[in-house]
Amino acid sequence: MAKTIIYPSAIKYLSDLTNTIAGLKEVGIEFEKESAEKVAGLAQSMLKTVNKLSDSLKNHEFSSTDEHMQYCSKTIRPLMDEVRTFADALESEVADELWALPTYQEMLFIK
After folding, report:
1. Which residues contact 87 (CB under 8 A, 6 or more apart)?
2. Stretch 13-31: mean pLDDT, rounded?
3. Signed CA dihedral, 103, 107, 109, 111: sign only
4. Is the pTM of the predicted complex or chain greater than 0.85?
C-alpha cells in the first residue's frame, strides 16, 4: 500500500504543489516551499523504509520458529511501524482530494 497507493498520492501532490509554486514565481509571486520540501522528505524516507522492509521480508533462513518470530518482532515490526509513521505524516500534508485512502477523519465521522 505504501508503494502503490500512498507514495503515488504524495508524488502527485508534490508535482501539483511544485508546478503551482513555479507558476507563481513566473508572475513574480514568491511562495513558501517548505511544504513541498516536507512532503518530498517524508515520501523519500517512507520509500527507503519500504525498501528496507522488502529486503527484510526476503530473509527465510531461521533455525527455529522462535528465531523467526524474534526476527519478525525485532526487525520487521519496527520497520512496519516506521512506514506507518511516514504514511500518517503524509496523510496530514497531502490534499484530501489526492489522498487515495479514507482519512482517519473520514473513517471516524462517516455518515
Report:
1. 2, 6, 46
2. 93
3. positive
4. yes
